[in-house]
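Review box. Two proteins, two foldings.
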Amino acid sequence: MTRTEYPWLLPSEMMDPRGPELPGDRGRARPRRTVRDWVIDTLMFLAAAGVGLLALSASENVGNADHVVVIDTIVGVLACCALWTRRRWPVGLTLVLVVVSAVSPVSSGAVLVALFCVAVHRPFRIVAAVGGLSLVAGCLSSVIRPDPSTSLTTGLIATVVVILLVTGWGMLVRARRQLVVALRERATRAEAEAELRAEQAQRLAREAIAREMHDVLAHRLTLLSVHAGALEFRPDAPAPEVARAAGVIRDSAHEALQDLRMIIGVLRAPGDEGDRPQPTLVTLDALVAESREAGMKVTLDSRIDDPAAVPAATGRTAYRVAQEGLTNARKHAPGTETTVEVSGGPGDGLTLEVRNAAPLGEVPNVPGSGQGLIGLTERALLAGGRFEHGATGEGGFAVRAWLPWAS
């Protein structure tokens, strides 16, 4: 979160994460004054008192009656003391002081401070109205109680100039505070968006890892399940078949551990996939041979003259499609004929299709989440290709993918 090194040097309104107070904020708890607020309030009080003393001295020099001087003194002291409430009621206090200043010039310093506070804390519409009333009151004060040392015109011009300067200064301070608040909100929003992007990246990474683990391990674990089930239901099988099934189980378990170790290695070292080569279209023959050793009837029809010429990313995706198709055929239609067809070329794209015939007898109840087909669809779309799957007219099932192959 964005923090300030010296918060005690900021106004209390800037310390509130909701920003400066607005006129409609009813019941909003006011933040406590900071050290800067106390210093500024004290300086403002002293400045108002200094201007009031100058006005009082001018009133004495004019020759006003003693009771008038006493009344001016009392009004000036009360006006300066009232400035300590300007943060809570800036508009109301300013209006009262403006009316009083029309007949008591000693309170003119307090009026200027209150007007500055209104310009800082209120929008232009209110500032314009209060400033206009201050101009009227200042002009009346120059007429009702003129300064004999200056002409009426000079007094009026000086009053207008001072009020405009104070109002403009306050509006400038307000604009700067609004800019700081906007920048702070933008920084906070940027931090929140960065956190959301990080969470989204983590979620996408977890989904990618889950798809990769499914693609890698489902094939191996299916072999384990099939052969373990065969050993369980045929304990009287000949010794060569038992040895063959046990060998497949051992090899599949070893391959599954190798694949799992590779994925864990990637997790431990992001971007490093280890020294083990990734499967591509070149290793498709080995995948088919492994499925045949597991007892599947697989026919491979590859019309690719040089599988090594296929781009690595395209070949990897095609391999995963074939692997998922063979895994699903083994789980849901054991003992049926499965055909793997690969065709295409540079510029035409690569087409891979895996079809299996209708299952023989009752379809075994093998649990499946369907995440494999969803993951392959996402893989194909990310590669710029297409992926289709569904039942065939003869009761079988087929998966088909087309992947781009640049010429």
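Next protein.
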Amino acid sequence: MPVRARRLPSYALFAALLSAAGLPVYIHAPKFYVDEYGVSLAALGAVLFGLRLLDVVQDPLLGGLSERMRRHRGAAVAIGAFVMAAAMLGLFAVPPPILPIAWFGIMLTLVFSGFSFLTICFYAQGVSKADSLPGRGHLALARWRETGALLGVCVASVAPVGLGVVMGAPFAGYATGFAVLALASVLAMSGEWRDAGLPPSTGFATILRDPVARQLLLIALFNAAPVAVTSTLFLFYVEIALEAAGWEGPLLLLFFLSAAGAAPCWGLLAERFGGRRVLLAAMALGIVAFGGALFLGPGDVAVFAVICIASGAVLGADLTLLPAMFATRMARVSPSAAEGFGLWSFVSKFTLAFAAIALLPLLEGAGLRTGDASSPPQATRLLIIFYAGVPCALKLIAIGLLSRMNAIEDISWKQ
């Protein structure tokens, strides 16, 4: 491995940390607070939506903070990781000392604030790192980074289920393991947070004036929304629509392992055939694969497992190719990249607000119930439509936007 590429495994480990604090929290935390503390779905949806409103202001500001702390980014990252790990312990390992919904909101605010700041720093540092690599630097870094992220999601998604077999407090064990991972990741990346001597920040206006950057951000919005919807509703779909309680962990593992295995393959295909063309093909395959979930019912676990494998493989393309395209564009229009990824982080997380505020209250209003309580047929059918139908419709919008963007072929990778 070339000298400049030897630290790429450290980027994979740090990406695993960030991914463990992203989708798995949306998968596990709402249901954990419903089952353990009896918090209503509507209340959880309102809190999650409020957190995303906070991100409207916070993420761009965190991008500016990351830019101003470029010379001291290592220390800032260590503080951010500590805050995120402590809040994760508070969320899952500490019984709420106040009203559970209030504690849920406070801990998630700290988790997501740390997550946002670290994500912005990490992807911004990746732009300068990729420019120092030989050949297609952004794609090489993306393969390591996104494969590490997907492996992190795999472990984080199933860890509470696996820990539940060996210990009485699986989520406390999960939070403790996350804190250990945070320490290891910060140590592994300790030599990477250096100022690469990039030009000063160009500000948000320069990024938003660039038509290609604007289009990529809009595509990211509609392309991330399906993942937000499915991750928010996955546990409910398996338990209620499939009546397959206990299969959540294995199915999640299948999904994310398929994504992790496919991510490097999508990168290689993009090098040969072009990023836009390959990503469009992957999006279309995603609709075909995932649309089948609309027609499943109780006992269809085997068929859903096949859907998880196919749709997980497509997710590998989404998470690898689009961030690499955006990073390459940032290298041209805003080389420091911190503010650009502040906008990217906001766009990605805004989709989770849509899932929380638009879907959870509607499902509760339709009579959806978890645990031993039964749900009326209309509530179950609405859950299936939200889980499988809404993501396919959103993906169609993303395909339409990307298909009109011919200029993207010119900015796919560093040649």
